[in-house]
Amino acid sequence: AVLRQAMRADAPGRTASYARAMAARACDAGAPESVFAYARWAASLDGSRDVAGSAWFVLGQAWEALGRPDSALANYDAVLRTWKDPGSLGPLASFREAALLERIGQWERAQATYLTLQARYPTDALAFESARRVVQHYVAGGKPELARALGGQAIQNLERTLATNLDPRVQRGARAARADLLLALGRTDEAEAALLDLWRRFPEDSLAEEAGLRGARLAEHRPGGAARSDSIRAILRRDAASPSVRRAAATALDPTAPEGRR
After folding, report:
1. Are 43 and 55 in contact (CB under 8 A)?
2. How many CB atoms lie within 10 A of CB 162?
3. Residues 41, 8 contacting (CB under 8 angstroms)
4. How many Å apart are CA 114 and CA 32, to the nearest integer?
5. What gap in Å lies between CA 138 and CA 210, rounded to an integer?
6. CB of 261 within 8 A of CB of 250?
């Protein structure tokens, strides 16, 4: 009600922003008909990237929820093609489009979109996830040669990013993706090293702590690795910021102990 009153009283630019906000709320609430009304209103009032682009993106989500992939793809495509630089909507729209194409069985288009996302937004978290999706598709499909070729290229790109971008967020995400790709490709020794390196570099980060647990699991299956695995778990049981990681480490060290004594 407050937003509607502001729409009636405020300038057109702010009204468009309010309409966009209500479209997003309606989408979160699972009310596609309201999404259509508010998003289209917002786009008609303000054709800017921030307002119209956001409105089209939300429309795409609403069409997805209604099982209308062609209409959803049209809206995501509008976000990507209307502006040379879609801003923060670029990786979001690209990933939604690729994931939707993958779900409806259009893998070649999905892969092309995933690869374009990686090339255009190489430091974005969704670029890292796109690399995982491509490799996992070929591993699951029993095509190891393609998985190795595309995974190897993705790993090289991630290593280039790690060498040139020192933002901690990018470093964490790229290192996690690199470890996941190595593991998917069966390069377990390298994956173990990558996971433990991530944990040591960011010891108080929950993602890195999970990486430490995964690295310990890999280590215990290597010759002579049991002691190193136990050492890692002991540190995590004592020092991990995440309660779930502390519990998992304690359970792995002594699965028979009562929970309160681990």
Report:
1. yes
2. 14
3. no
4. 27
5. 25
6. no
Tokens of 37: 């009304």
- Give the residue from 127, 152, 145, 147 showing the smallest Cα distance to 137: 147
Q: How many CB atoms lie within 10 A of CB 88?
A: 13
- DSSP assignment, residue 52? I
Q: What is the pTM of this model?
A: 0.87
Instruction: Give per-residue pLDDT as tens, 99-150.
Output: 999 999 999 999 999 999 999 999 999 999 999 999 999 999 999 999 999 9
> For residues 77 and 67, what is the distance between their CA atoms, to the nearest angstrom?
17
The residue count for the chain: 262
In percent, the amount of the chain with pLDDT more than 90 equals 74
Q: In which residue ranges of the chain is pLDDT below 50?
A: 1-2
List, in order, residues 6 or more apart from 258 with CB less than 8 Å away. Answer: none
Query: Quick check: 197 and 162 in contact, CB under 8 A?
Result: no
pLDDT at 261: 53
Q: Is 61 exposed, middle or buried (0-12, 13-18, 19+ CB in 10 A)?
A: buried
* The two three-digit tokens of residue 131, written as one number: 């690399």
